[in-house]
Amino acid sequence: MDRRTFTGSALGAIGALAQGTVTTSEAASQAAKPISAAGMARDKKNAVPYAKPKGLRNGFDSVDMNEVMVVQQQPAVRVKLESAGKPQAAQLDDGTVIVAGFIEPPVHKQSRCTLQYSRDNARTFGEPVVLDMPGRTGGFRCLKNGTLILGHSAGISRSTDSGKTWSTWTFPTKIVPGTGRLGLGECHGPIELDDGTLAMHLYRVVGGYQWNAYLIRSTDDGKTWGDPTQVPTRTDSDEISYEYIADKKRIFGVTRSSAAQIRRVKEFADQVPGGKNAPLGSEAGDAAFQFHSDDGGRTWTDPIPTGLGVLQAAGAYPLKLADGRMLLLYGNRQFPYGTQVVGSHDNGKTWALDQPILLSWHSWSGYCGHPRSVQLRDGTIVTGYYTHRIDNPGDGPVDPGRGAPPPNHNRQDTGEIVRWRVPDGWPMKPVA
C-alpha cells in the first residue's frame, strides 16, 4: 500500500470511528466554544505531572513544565567583557559608565579587582585597569556625591577621583561576634538613607554552609564602617542585597538563603517551587527570600519567600526605578540558563512572576547570574552578569552540577553587560 492509499484509508477509518462517537451537531457545538484562558488554567491544574530528571542540579529543579513562554523581543545593547568576572556597573556625573569586576588565576597570577570605563553609554569599554585590591568584587556603587564605593575580600574601598586612587577600610576582627571569616558576599553595594548614612551587608562564617548576616553602617561617606545590626536570616545567608524605598523610608532586603530556611518553616516547602526536595548544604537548595525594615535597619520583618524557585534566584537583587516600579533581577540556574527579571508595582509586596524578562538565556550551564544593575540618567538599565561561554571547546559535561569542575572565571566564564529599557506598562497589573 503506498502512502496516499494508506493515508486515505487511515483517515477514513478514523473518520468512521469519530462519526460513531460524536454527532455533527456536537462537533459543531464543540468547535463553537473555544477554550478560555481560565479553562486552560484548569487543564493545567489537572495535567499529569512532568517526570523530571533526578539529581541535585539538573536544570528542572523548580521549573513548571506545564507552561509555554510567550516571547516578545526588545532591542538592547550587549557587550562581552574580558577580565571582568561578575561585573557591576555605576555611572559618574559626567555620564561615564564604570564596570567593576575581577580577574584571577590562571588568567592572572593573583586575584584582583578590575575597572573598565565607557564614555559612549556602555556601547564600548576601554582596557581593564587591574587594581591592587584582592579577591572578587563585593558590591560597587557611585554615591550621590560621586564617591565610588567598592567592596572586596580585604575590605571596603572608596575613591573620590573617579577610580584613579583609592583608600581602604579593612574589616576589624571584632566588628561582630565570632571568630569565623568576614566577607561581603556578592552583594549590590551600599544604599544611602535620607540622613546620608550608608548601609551595606556583612557576613561572618559560623559553620559549614552557615553564616551570620549583619547590616553595617557608615556616617562619614564610606571612610569607616561599624554599628552592626544582625538581620533575621537565621545563619544561612552570605549574600544579601538591599534597596532603599525613600517614600516609605524602608530598607528592602533580598537574601539568597539555603534550603535550611525552607526546612525551618514548614509551609515554605510548599511556597518555594522545588522546595520539598531542596538539599541541605548545597547551592542546589538556594532560594530567594525577602524582608524589610522601617526603622533604619534596627528591626526587621521575618524573611518570606519571593515566590521564585529553588536554584532560580541564585543571587537576587532588588532595584527601585525612578518611576516607582521595582525590579528583582536574578541568576536563573535552570533552563533557560542565564539572567531574568520580574517586576512589582507595590514595592515588592507582590511580584509578577508570570511575566519575566529574559535578559540573557545563552549560558552553557547553570554557572551564571549575579545580575547587579544600575539605572542610568536616561532611564535605561545596565545589568552586569556572568555566563558560561558556549564557544569554548573541551569543557566537558555541560552542567558543572553533575560533578564536573566549575568553569574558570575570565576563561570559560565571561562577564557581560546588557543595556536595556524596561517596557512601558510592564509588568501588566492583574485584572480586578
What does this structure look like?
This protein has one domain: Neuraminidase. 11% of the residues lie in helices and 33% in strands. The chain contains five helices and 25 strands. The longest helix is centred in the first third of the chain and has 19 residues, at 3-21. It is globular and about 70 Å long. Residues 1-20 have low confidence and may be disordered.
* Rg measurement, Å: 25 Å
| Highest-level CATH class | Mainly Beta
| Uncertain regions spanning at least 5 consecutive residues | 1-20
Task: Report strand %.
Answer: 25-35%
CATH architecture assignment: 6 Propeller
The major pleated sheet works out as: 5 strands, antiparallel
Question: Counting H and I runs of at least 4 residues, what is the number of helices?
Answer: 5
Number of strands: 25
CATH topology title: Neuraminidase
- Total individual domains: 1
The residue-averaged pLDDT reads: 89
Question: What is the element layout, followed by pairings?
Answer:
Layout: H1 3-21, H2 24-31, H3 37-45, E1 77-81, E2 88-91, E3 97-103, E4 112-118, E5 129-134, E6 140-142, E7 148-152, E8 155-159, E9 167-170, E10 182-183, E11 191-192, E12 198-207, E13 210-218, E14 226-230, E15 240-245, E16 250-257, H4 259-264, H5 268-271, E17 287-293, E18 304-305, E19 316-320, E20 326-332, E21 338-344, E22 357-360, E23 369-375, E24 381-388, E25 413-420
Antiparallel strand pairs: 1-25, 2-3, 3-4, 4-5, 6-7, 7-8, 8-9, 10-12, 11-12, 12-13, 13-14, 15-16, 16-17, 17-18, 19-20, 20-21, 21-22, 23-24, 24-25
